[in-house]
């Protein structure tokens, strides 16, 4: 799989653009030993799931190779759900990924991009979409 696709997947693992989902239970459901009645509102944190140490080795490390075929073998399909899963998953996911790839290609054709020499780590700010409270500190240099 090309490097860009691997990097994109790993970025969306660490920083899922949609950090959580909500559901209402249609029937009684056993969650972690507790019987939840129908109608219970459930919040599923994609953000926490994507960094859960039971699911990911060194969860905070950026390692795009996690998404090579070899390393994906045996991994629970539901451990990585930036676009949700099941019948109500994101209908725009392929379009969204293509847009991001095109945007990145257009930027790096024109600029070299580096981390800014002084950069505070991004403070995650989960709203409907995940944002950085203190921005993203990068240095753009026009290619000659
Ligand atoms: C990186 C980009 C995107 C991400 C991470 C993303 C993520 C998600 C997630 C997690 C859900 C499930 C939400 C939930 O069930 O509460 C969702 C649903 C949805 N997304 Fe996206 N999305 C992206 C781009 C797009 C684009 C580009 C479109 C349309 C062109 C789109 C259209 C939709 C629609 C219509 C639903 C609702 C599907 C349903 O309920 O049946 N998304 N998306």
From TrEMBL:
Gene3D superfamilies attached to this UniProt entry: Cytochrome P450
Position of the signal peptide: none
GO terms, molecular function: heme binding; iron ion binding; monooxygenase activity; oxidoreductase activity, acting on paired donors, with incorporation or reduction of molecular oxygen
Classification via InterPro entries: Cyt_P450 (IPR001128), Cyt_P450_CS (IPR017972), Cyt_P450_E_grp-IV (IPR002403), Cyt_P450_sf (IPR036396), Cytochrome_P450_Monoox (IPR050196)
Cofactor (UniProt): heme
Keyword Iron: yes
Record keywords: Heme, Iron, Metal-binding, Monooxygenase, Oxidoreductase
Positions bound to heme: 90
Family note: Belongs to the cytochrome P450 family.
Matches recorded under PANTHER family: CYTOCHROME P450 FAMILY 4, CYTOCHROME P450, FAMILY 4, SUBFAMILY B, POLYPEPTIDE 7
The protein, known as: Cytochrome P450 4B1
């Amino acid at each position: 799989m090309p490097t860009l696709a691997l990097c994109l997947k790993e970025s969306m693992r660490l920083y899922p653009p949609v950090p959580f989902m909500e559901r209402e239970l249609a029937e009684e459901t056993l969650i972690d030993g507790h019987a939840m009645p129908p109608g219970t509102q459930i919040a599923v944190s994609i953000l926490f799931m994507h960094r859960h140490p039971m699911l990911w080795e060194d969860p905070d490390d950026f390692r795009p190779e996690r998404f090579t075929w070899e390393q994906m073998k045996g991994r629970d399909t539901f451990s990585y759900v930036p676009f949700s899963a099941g019948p109500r998953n994101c209908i725009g996911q392929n379009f969204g990924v293509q847009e991001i790839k095109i945007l990145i290609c257009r930027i790096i054709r024109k600029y070299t991009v580096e981390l800014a020499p002084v950069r505070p780590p991004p403070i995650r700010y989960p709203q409907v979409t995940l944002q950085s409270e203190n921005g993203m500190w990068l240095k753009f240099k026009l290619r000659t």
